[in-house]
Design brief:
Layout lengths: L1 H17 L2 E9 L9 E4 L5 E3 L5 E6 L7 E5 L6 E4 L8 E3 L4 H4 L1 E4 L2 E4 L7 E5 L22 E4 L10 E4 L13 E4 L2 E2 L10 E7 L2 H4 L10 E6 L9 E13 L8 H10 L14 H5 L4 E12 L3 E13 L6 E15 L4 E15 L9 H9 L25 H6 L1 E18 L5 E20 L4 H5 L5 E24 L2 E24 L24 E21 L3 E12 L9 E12 L12 E15 L11 E9 L2 E8 L10 E14 L4 E20 L9 E24 L3 E11 L1 E6 L11 E4 L11 E4 L6 E4 L2 E4 L5 E4 L5 E3 L11 E5 L4 E11 L2 E11 L2 E4 H6 L34 E3 L2 E13 L8 E15 L17 E2 L7 E11 L1
Length: 985
């Protein structure tokens, strides 16, 4: 009888823990207004309710819940979590969430509250990155920042993202891309694993980038990797995915059956049927599989913590023998002492990279792709003796499979980076910091062609090999002192610093041919005879440059209404050693007005934040070649002296002691806004960039000059543009959330001037770009007074009955083929390869545990020169394969009979809209012990392109002086399908 009584008493005692409890209450804002639709959830469960029209809620605690906690959230307000305990009525007041304003944004040599920013700065956190597998860190920002154009014009697994911020700013300056800063140290996108990145901040205008001086003239991309967290329990994170790829769009080429049909119809000679049936693109292609795996460890105590990660990326290309394999290891340790007044940080990174070479000095050879495109589809792969089927008598005509398999090559890169950072806070408002870094890149490459390679027959090489190596070392020291203080309504931060950067680069190469055997590949270079006979080359070089800087910045805020930032950087570069002005001073200033903090805005309920910004900044750009202020010496030909032949030594350039920095002067006016508790927010910026002292090579008389060309600072270039970014949150509740972002930007470029009183150009233009053989002419022209990117060629308007072009001359008159001059004077501007407008639309949706992200972007009002059509859509070229469209009537009148030519018929509208990335995921509520989080996802990249362009992909090169050309040797872009998993232990 005792035992049943004890059990009964135990059950009665435990009953409250299993009984359901109901909690009621009201949710209001800090003004006492009821919040309708606020989310009230029992933390750790799926139990949740929304407040009614009076802000009231009723929620039942599920049976068995221990230590239940209410989690209350509402868009635009700070989340609150309240232990329930024995309470049955809980009324909650939510405070306005100024996270957008108090969010920390990384700027040069420090951070600022987003609300205090007065320059044009964009910040993208990890949760907003492009989802799915990306090639490098640049792709994480694709379509995320207005004015930042990130393209992937090549599908080659070794190629990276092409980044352009607010247009082209130079002709011959050293810096053409944005400065990449990784954890405070200059670097490149290839040396950081995308999975390791916490946030990316972009300094877009001159007032923000001027603190970086000459390195920041094209903007600054600041990458912050994941850092150790104080007193974090041990955490292990794994992310992995597997992808397959396919060609996004293929060229529609003639097949062997098409050849034989043409022979039967009498339009092609029977000698072109070589008896085979070969799809040459298929022969060199495959279905590539890509693997990416990342493992991260985090942990520590209140004084010492760490993060360590290992990352493995194996990227296969769609073409055989094209790949990219990278292993990256990183460890970051923080240690604080003396009550956290002294903080030491040590970061180590090591990266090993290797990829197959099928070209001398490069990765997959685009010329091999060209050979697969133009190869006769009736050609067999092998001849009757089992050797490669070749026709060396045909100009530039080679078996693409032989080019692949009769070569042997490998490139190996080893990167190492050490960063030591010491921060000391001697008093409350003063922070002293010293950063020292050492970065090292070793590159070793080898390449060989066997005796069976066509170069043996065509070039008489009889086996060829080349090796090369390079070493690039960067040493950096930066010290800063930062004093922050608030006195009444005044808040300011004063920063001062010193920087020293040294870059050391050395390289060597050797080539040889005429080898007795193929056995050693490129591993026994001395066996070749050509080097000893003086027919091959070898060489080496070394170059050291340094940059010394002194800089300061003041940030000031009065009553969170009136904001000011001013900076100055004084620096000298060894590239200008010997010049009259080797040092430059780059100043910047910006102001902001928080309109919503004014008294007259207190009673309005529309705007959460409204800030007007204006900034002006100057940055520089040194010459691309060093020491041009002096007469550089070089070795020339041999002369006979004292009975022997000796190498001559003498000047090779004209000295220009007046050489100096290019200077970019940039004005930016912007507006930041947030409405309806953050439901709508965004930025608008208008900028004008004026580059003065633009470097250019000028023709000068000789004598008195040693040579006929001198580089000088004379030109002026201008960029103007508008950038708009708008965020919407149409829906946000406990089950469903949708955020959407629209981006729009414009950019216009103009070369204002290239002459002054001392230096003048002989023409009001210069030509650039090239079609390659056999057309052999330039593709683009830059006129003074117009922008970069104009296509320049013959304008065709029709075709005659015989299949010959009809042109429009400079007077607007129609001229037949035989009467047309085909001279430079007959050429016209045919379009421009730089888009005038860019757009983007990003969507992130969450329904319970499901998530979906869709990234879209487009470019408009530009043209593309379609090289594939120009070379492969002409039926007069019988030696090579062609596009099927080559047999179609031009303008619906006649089949083309005119020879190959660069003209307007091959200039196409490049407008496109891409659904770039679609990622769908599911977050599990893990019930397995020690698993905190689990997510699986499916993703596609380069999903769909909507365009009228007839080529493979309208996303072509947009950098340099000849943008917009769709090169016939370009590695085709791919569409990627991915499955992946994320686990947290």
């Amino acid at each position: 009888m005792v035992q049943p009584l004890v059990i009964l008493l135990g059950l009665c005692t435990a009953l409250p823990a299993f009984a359901q409890t109901t909690v009621r209450g009201k949710i209001t804002d800090d003004a006492g207004t009821a919040l309708v639709g606020a989310s009230v959830v029992i933390k750790g469960t799926s139990q949740g309710e929304l407040t009614n029209k009076n802000g009231e809620y009723t929620i039942t605690i599920p049976s068995g819940t221990t230590d239940p906690t209410l989690s209350i959230s509402f868009i635009g307000y700070m989340r609150r979590e309240i232990p329930i305990g024995n309470q049955t009525t809980i009324n909650v007041t939510l405070e306005t969430d100024n996270a957008m304003l108090s969010e920390v944004v990384v700027v040069g040599y420090g951070t600022q509250r987003a609300g205090d920013i007065t320059s044009s700065v964009a910040s993208v956190k990890a949760e907003n990155f492009v989802k799915g597998p990306v090639r490098d860190a640049g792709q994480l920002l694709q379509g995320k920042v207005a004015g930042l154009t990130i393209g992937t014009p090549s599908g080659n697994p070794t190629s990276g993202s092409q980044i352009v911020l607010r247009g082209n700013t130079t002709l011959f300056g050293a810096n053409t891309d944005p400065l990449i800063i990784i954890d405070g140290v200059p670097g490149n996108l290839n040396t950081v694993a995308p999975e390791d990145i916490e946030s990316i901040d972009v300094l877009k205008d001159g007032s923000a980038a001027a603190i970086y001086g000459v390195r920041g003239t094209n903007g600054v991309v600041i990458i912050t990797t994941k850092r150790p967290k104080a007193a974090e329990t041990n955490v292990v994170e794994y992310s992995g995915n597997v992808s397959i790829q396919s060609v996004a769009r293929k060229l529609d080429l003639l097949t062997a059956q098409d050849y034989r049909s043409q022979i039967a119809a009498g339009t092609r000679d029977a000698s072109w049927d070589l008896g085979g049936d070969t799809d040459w693109l298929r022969e060199i292609s495959r279905t590539p599989v890509t693997n990416i795996h990342n493992l991260t460890f985090r942990g520590g105590s209140s004084t010492t913590n760490y993060i360590a990660s290992v990352n493995y990326r194996y990227l296969e290309g769609i073409f055989k023998k094209s790949d990219n394999r990278t292993f990256t290891g990183r460890i970051d340790v923080n240690h604080s002492m003396f009550n956290k007044k002294l903080v030491l940080n040590l970061s180590l990174l090591s990266q090993l990279n290797r990829f197959t070479q099928t070209a001398d000095g490069g990765t997959f050879n685009g010329y091999t792709y060209r050979q697969a495109v133009i190869r006769n589809p009736t050609s067999p792969v092998y001849d009757q003796n089992g050797n490669w089927f070749e026709q060396p008598g045909n100009f530039n005509y080679e078996n693409p499979l032989a080019r692949l398999y009769e070569t042997d090559g490998l490139t190996r890169n080893a990167d190492a980076r050490l960063i030591a950072n010491i921060t000391y806070n001697p008093i409350k408002d003063l922070r002293l910091n010293a950063l020292v870094s050492y970065s090292r890149n070793n590159n070793n490459a080898g390449y060989a062609e066997t005796k069976r390679h066509i170069s043996t027959v065509r070039d008489n090489r009889n086996g060829y090999a080349a090796i090369g190596s390079s070493l690039n070392i960067t040493r950096l020291l930066e010290t800063t002192a930062e004093y922050s203080k608030q006195i009444g309504l005044n808040r300011f931060t004063l920063l001062g610093g010193y920087g020293y950067q040294e870059n050391e680069f050395e390289s060597s190469f050797m080539q040889n041919f005429n080898f007795p055997t193929d056995i050693f590949s490129y591993h026994n270079m001395a066996l070749g005879k050509a080097l000893a006979e003086g027919k091959a080359n070898m060489g080496s070089s070394k170059n050291v440059t340094n940059l010394i800087s002194f800089f300061s910045r003041l940030s000031y805020s009065y009553d969170d209404r009136y904001l000011l930032m001013a900076s100055v950087r004084h620096e000298g570069a060894s590239q200008l050693y010997g010049a009259k002005r080797p040092w430059g001073t780059f100043m910047a200033g910006s102001v902001g007005w928080r309109i919503t903090n004014e008294a007259f805005m207190k009673n309005q309920t529309i705007f959460d934040d409204l800030k007007l910004r204006a900034g002006y900044g100057v940055t520089g750009n040194p010459p691309s070649s060093s020491f041009l202020s002096q007469a550089l010496l070089g070795y020339g030909g041999f002369i006979y002296s004292n009975g022997e032949w000796v190498r001559s030594l003498g000047p090779v350039t004209n000295p220009n002691p007046n050489l100096r920095w290019e200077e970019k002067h940039e004005t930016n006016i912007g507006l930041d806004f947030s409405l309806r508790k953050g439901r709508i927010s965004g930025q608008v910026d208008y900028y004008v960039r004026r580059i003065k002292g633009l470097l250019y090579d000028y023709q000068v008389p000789s004598p008195p000059n040693l040579f006929t060309s001198t580089r000088a600072n004379v030109g002026v270039m201008e960029n103007k543009g508008l950038e708009v970014l708008v965020n919407f949150v149409p829906v946000k509740n406990k089950d469903f959330e949708w955020t959407t972002t629209f981006l729009f930007s414009t950019n216009g470029n103009k070369l204002v001037s290239l002459s002054n009183d001392l230096y003048q150009t002989t023409n009001d233009y210069f030509t650039t770009g090239g079609t390659g053989e056999p057309i052999q002419t330039f593709t683009n022209i830059v006129f003074i007074g117009k922008g970069i990117g104009d296509f320049y060629g013959f304008k065709v308007v029709d075709i005659d009955e015989s299949g010959k072009w009809i042109y429009e001359n400079k007077n607007g008159e129609r001229v037949g083929y035989n009467d047309f001059g085909h001279s430079f004077e007959d050429k016209r501007v045919l379009g421009n390869g730089l888009p005038k407008y860019y757009g983007g639309w990003n969507n992130n949706l969450r329904y319970k545990n499901f998530d979906l992200s869709v990234t879209m972007r487009g470019a408009f009002a530009y043209q593309i020169l379609n090289f594939q059509r120009m070379y492969l859509e002409n039926p007069t070229i019988v030696n090579y394969n062609r596009l099927k469209s080559s047999t179609e009537k031009v303008y619906g009148k006649a089949v083309l009979t005119a020879p190959l030519e660069y003209n307007s018929y091959y200039i196409e509208n490049g407008d496109f809209w891409k659904i770039d990335n679609i990622t769908a995921g599911y977050n599990f509520n893990p019930k397995i012990k020690n698993i905190q989080r689990a997510r699986v996802f499916l993703s596609t990249l380069n999903t769909l392109t909507i365009t009228g362009y007839k080529g493979i992909d309208p996303e072509v090169n947009r950098s340099g002086l000849s943008p917009g050309s769709d090169d016939r040797d370009k590695y085709p872009t791919t569409r990627t399908f991915t499955a992946g998993i994320n686990l947290t232990f």
